[in-house]
Write a structure and sequence with these properties.
Blueprint: H1 4-17, H2 24-28, H3 31-44, H4 61-76, H5 82-97, H6 109-129, H7 138-153, H8 159-178
The structure holds 2-acetamido-2-deoxy-beta-D-glucopyranose (2 copies).
């Protein structure tokens, strides 16, 4: 039987494989596996699920654009990497957000570490397996910048600020998982 810890290990081995083989397809198919793992860790980290809403609105049209591109891909069956680029950029922005001062968090530190490691791994996989975007994702960047400014900095990196960030993060990682 595997313990929960050794699962995390296995995930990190999957990540490490990227550097020794050209197995982008294989790894791309495991997006869901890694995604399920960090979403589960995010839940296990604990802390209060805050009722509060972040004072920043996500530009929803970004998701709609990707979903539309998905439909086009199915019909025309041409190679479309928008989805993976969007995932790459979003996950990168999330890892940057979690670079802030985390002294006040009340989360389980080990689970938090595992969460960040696996998220980082997902980012490394995406980064090396998709060709870079031609257009910079400005609106996405702006949204994450606002989260940083209006939540983390304004609320002094408090436990409550991090709860809000955790909630937003979960929401977006779940959406990235679905499409
Ligand atoms: C993924 O995101 C990083 C950070 O923004 C960027 O440097 C890289 O080019 C992106 N990769 C792809 C494939 O979009
Ligand atoms: C954050 O810290 C500053 C300076 O220490 C203080 O003036 C401000 O009231 C604090 N804000 C919150 C939301 O605690």
């Amino acid at each position: 039987m595997y313990t929960k810890e050794s699962w995390t290990c296995i995930f990190l081995i999957i990540c490490g494989m990227q550097s020794v083989c050209h197995c982008c397809d294989w790894i791309r198919h495991h997006y869901g596996l890694l995604s399920a793992e960090y979403l589960s860790l995010l839940d296990q980290m604990g802390g209060d699920i805050t009722e509060q809403e972040a004072p920043v609105f996500f530009p929803e049209s970004l998701y709609r654009r990707i979903e539309l591109a998905e439909i086009k891909t199915r019909i025309l069956t041409f190679h479309y990497e928008d989805k993976d680029r969007f995932r790459n950029e979003t996950i990168y922005q999330i890892t940057k957000l979690f670079d802030g001062n985390m002294k006040a968090v009340t989360w389980d530190k080990k689970k938090l570490d595992d969460f960040l490691n696996i998220l980082e791994c997902q980012f490394e996989n995406l980064k090396s397996c998709v060709s870079p975007a031609k257009k910079p994702a400005r609106r996405l960047k702006r949204y994450f910048k606002k989260l940083n400014r209006k939540v983390l900095r304004k609320m002094n990196y408090s436990a409550q600020a991090w709860e809000l960030i955790g909630k937003e993060t979960k929401h977006h990682l779940q959406r990235l998982d679905i499409f």
